[in-house]
Amino acid sequence: MSDEIKKPEEAEGWSNFIHDFIEEDLAEGGRYAGQTVHTRFPPEPNGYLHIGHAKAIYVDFGTAEKYNGLCNLRMDDTNPTKEDVEYVDAIKEDIAWLGYSWEDRFYYASDYFPKMYEAAVQLIRKGLAYVCELTPEQMRENRGDLTHPAVSPYRDRPVEESLDLFARMKAGEFEDGKMTLRAKIDLASGNFNMRDPVIYRINHLHHHRTGDNWCIYQCMTLHIRSRMLWKGLRIPFARWSLRIIGRSMIG
């Protein structure tokens, strides 16, 4: 960024809760003392950047810059219905125009499709996910209300049956909308979005990077997916609270 523009952190006494957390973690005796601040900016390449993205870019890249850390650029390209390489190029150009650099740390979520699939398989094996054959309309009809839980006749489907169907979904045997993979969370949750949300849907679309290799795509937010993986697979969970990430994460 231009040296002529005075950055907010240069003002006396200026701070914010993110930097307060980081400084607490980096301080001697802190949880991550002596480690490197490593952030990530993960835009979806389904359109051009807007003012909201500019704020996130400043927080992610600016925080890494302030603490002499690193910031990854990782395209969250898990929805081929709206994504295009034109937006990938435009996003990179705009970030560079703002004065930030990701150096050689440029990634795609689609690089991890095989790992995400294997994680979903593990959720099924652990009884935390199941293949459901309700259509979107039927899901809405059976979502219940504040006094009645949602319903799915497929929730108690045997694990081996769900594993077989999920593999066939991936192989493209079924038409779009025929089946979904749902997370087994709580059909009576007060948060309707957590009433066994859909993790994977069938979508026979050409992906800008993986071509026609995948017929199923994730359709949960990263936050929910991360929580499910953390809870079900006991893997490290990166919180969106922006607490310091002590070790480098590939994407």
Helices, by number, come to: 7
- What is the chains' assembly state? single chain
What is the straight-line distance between the termini? 25 Å
Rg over CA atoms, rounded to whole Å, is 21 Å
Describe the 3D structure.
The structure is a single chain. The longest helix has 16 residues, at 51-66. By secondary structure, the protein is α/β, with parallel strands linked by helices. It is globular. The protein contains seven helices and seven strands; from the N terminus they run αβαβαβαβααβββα. It has helices at residues 17-26, 51-66, 85-97, 113-125, 136-141, 159-170, 222-233, and strands spanning 38-41, 70-75, 106-108, 129-132, 180-183, 198-202, 216-218. Helix 4 (113-125) packs across helix 7. Helices cover 33% and strands 12% of the residues. The strands form two sheets. Strands 4-5-6-7 form a four-stranded antiparallel beta sheet, with helices on one face. The two termini are 25 Å apart. It has two domains: 8-111, HUPs (Rossmann fold, 3-Layer(aba) Sandwich); 112-233, Glutamyl-tRNA Synthetase, Domain 3 (Glutamyl-tRNA Synthetase, domain 3, Alpha-Beta Complex). Strand 1, helix 2 (51-66) and strand 2 form a beta-alpha-beta unit.
